[in-house]
Amino acid sequence: MLNQLGFMQGRLSPMQNNKIQAFPHKTWTTEFILAQSLGLTRMEWTLDDPINENPLLDPQQHSLIQSLCQKYNIKISGLTGDCFMQKPFWKSSDGLYKKLCIDFINILRACTRLEIPYIVVPLVDNGSIKHERELELLLSTFSKYQSVIATSNVHILFESDMPPLELLNFIKKFPSKYFGINYDIGNSSALGYDTLEELNAYYPYIKNVHIKDRVLNGTTVNLGTGNANIPLTLRELVSRGYTGSLIFQAARAPLDKNDIEQMQQYINYILDYCY
């Protein structure tokens, strides 16, 4: 299990502008060094708005990203598209829609060049689907770009707040060869969903997992202190043959504590109670 563990980019850096999750502009290269010191071998890239300030969208930075991965034995196992949640194209007006679609294609191409296999599209919070027309636009857009996605060697993974059977019906609308589910343990526990019911419904579609703990109807907390049964969830995933990434997206350290020490505690928790 240790070689499956990774971290959400930004979790090994000081908090940016009071945001729990944001691309660490000043320290992103340092995180490779810190991850290696912790024994982590996987990173999920964070792409938030404005995307053009992110080195992922700068081809001149790609060689640096690749060299850091090679030097510190870190694989960028996926990309979490917070930019899609901040500006969801499935909720946008015509003019903005076209621009956001171009952004998506540029992100897809960057991931192809950097051999990043997954893009997580969050259908939660501001990206949550609330109306039928939003669902229709989401479906039609990905249908329009399906051939581009197919040749990119990049999968699209949806993170959703839908109940188990609703999410199953949703993901079955997409070809499983190119689309799947990002399963967030903490978000599910906050929504009161039953782990076994979820896994029984759509386990074959799960391609990436976020390790997080939250209280019911509440916020993110330290692993083992919320409503998520993380040991049960991870053991169930392993017993079903899951070999994908397990990405720490857990609560950040308090201001008077160190994020690196906090991450080490999370790693120890997983190895002590879940392995």
Strands of the biggest beta sheet: in what spatial order? 1-2-3-4-5-6-7-10
Reported by name, the CATH topology is TIM Barrel
Measured between the Cα atoms of the first and last residue, the distance is: 7 Å
Helix content: 40-55%
Output the structural class.
alpha/beta
- So, the CATH homologous superfamily? Divalent-metal-dependent TIM barrel enzymes
Work out the strand percent. 15-25%
Low confidence ranges: none
CATH architecture: Alpha-Beta Barrel
Just give the CATH class. Alpha Beta
* Main sheet: strands, sense, barrel: 8 strands, parallel, barrel
The global form is globular
- The number of distinct structural domains comes to 1
Number of helices: 11
What is the mean predicted local confidence, pLDDT?
Answer: 95
Question: How many strand elements?
Answer: 10
Order of helices and strands: EHEHEHHEHHEHEHHEEEHEH
Gyration radius, in Å: 18 Å
Question: Can you give a write-up of this model?
Answer:
It is a single chain. Helix 7 (164-171) links the parallel strand 5 and strand 6 (179-184). The strands form two sheets. This protein has an eight-stranded parallel β-barrel with strand order 1-2-3-4-5-6-7-10. A two-stranded antiparallel sheet has the order 8-9. The chain is globular. It has a single domain (2-273), classed as Divalent-metal-dependent TIM barrel enzymes (TIM Barrel, Alpha-Beta Barrel). With 275 residues, it is of the alpha/beta class. The relative contact order is 0.13. The model has no long low-confidence stretch (mean pLDDT 95). It has eleven helices and ten strands.
